[in-house]
Amino acid sequence: PMAITLEDHTVTPGENTPGLWARSAQVVDYAIVSGSRTRAGAYVAWSCLIETFEGAQFTVRKRYSEFFTLHEQLQETFPKSVKYLPHLPPKSLISKFRPKFLEHRRQGLSYFLSCILLNPEFAGSPLVKDFLL
């Protein structure tokens, strides 16, 4: 099935959405950063592409653990909005470097990032800005 993406097509944020600053956000790629020969210490870096309302684009690389930390911080900071916070894709000790698993995780992280940046409450938070900038 085709992946679902979220994108805001408004030209500029309105008075009711002052926290919005990103037009779109997606996790576009990943790179496996190797550790030792036995892959001890290896991790995956996720490339996040953000487009602002001004038309600027920038890419940041984040580890899954950084997404996890942001998720926890948003839960603590916005307890009344937890129902609007999407779940992160699950972890796997066995499949964590397999292409099929990584593609599924990329899609899940992309959905999470889009939901966060297209929600005015979350997008205007210093937590999200610190995560991306």
UniProtKB/TrEMBL annotation:
Q: Which InterPro entries match?
A: PX_dom (IPR001683), PX_dom_sf (IPR036871), Ypt35_PX (IPR037917)
Determine if Membrane is one of this entry's keywords.
yes
**One cellular component (GO) term of this entry:** endosome membrane
Q: Name all PX domain ranges.
A: 1-133
Give the record's keywords alphabetically. Endosome, Membrane, Vacuole
Q: What's this protein's name? A: Endosomal/vacuolar adapter protein YPT35
The protein's superkingdom reads Eukaryota
- Give one GO term, molecular function aspect: phosphatidylinositol-3-phosphate binding
**What function does the entry list?**
Recruits the lipid transfer protein VPS13 to endosomal and vacuolar membranes.
Keyword Oxidoreductase appears in the UniProt entry: no
* Membrane topology classification: Peripheral membrane protein
